Amino acid sequence: MRGTGAVAYGAIVAMVSLLAAVSSLVAGTTSAEVLKDERTSLSVSGGTLHGSLLVPPGSAPVPIALLISGSGPTDRDGNTPLLPGKNDSLKLLAEGLAARNLASLRYDKRGIGESVGAGRNESRLRFENYIDDAAAWGQRLRKDKRFSSLVIVGHSEGSLIGAVAAQKIPADAFVSLEGVGQPAADLILAQLRPKLSPNTMAAVEGLVAKLKAGQTGMVPTGLEALFRPGVQPYLISWTGEQVTNAGADHAGNHRYANCASGCNTTRQRQSEGESCNSRRYESRPKACAP
Fold first, then answer.
1. pLDDT tens digit string along 191-213?
2. If DSSP codes are grouped into helix, strand and coil, which group holds residue 8?
3. 37 within 8 A of 82, measured Cβ to Cβ
């Protein structure tokens, strides 16, 4: 990543403080309420991605955050059809940032929301597509004279996307919101193990081992939604060593803020339950520095 100067470091401190105090975020958006999202789009391989840019008023360049949503059909605002109602979590975050004179861009990932046309064929979707898309957005923001520095903010799966994209752009800083602290394959197994019978779990473990090795396999009974043939190539790319190692390299080598509980990263963990909000990592950290 780029070296973080006073402006960039000040931006990341402001963002982490904001993210660590959600209640004050929502309460402090009055100055952003009069702002309107600027609709924007980006041409990528396979189609067009659509996003919303929110820039506070004024002529001086300001820091900007690229907000990357989590897994599944989660849209740019943080909403998903898998859950009832809207939470607008990323939209509220954008408004809270604008109220503190920080710009943001949030977007629908390919195959989701308004960007559905860019990912209609799920069998051709790869995790690297999401990384390349985030990097392309970031590179565009880098060239925009309205912005003084770039901070990547990723939530859940978007945290891993952002961690790798931050290196490709490169970004000034990276903020992880509940980013996963273990390889994707281990996470899948840990989430399913308490819910499945021993026989079904054995079938899942066999399939996941094949996916890690770059092979497709038989779908365990009752788990078609998760392991259907059309999505297995994507799971192969998500569980592969290239993505896992890239995220680990970022965690071990670059300054970032991790707003997930436990300071969880692939290489760096602290005692369970310790909050990492408002803390930061330095290069190759030995501990979470206050």
1. 999 999 999 999 999 999 999 99
2. helix
3. no
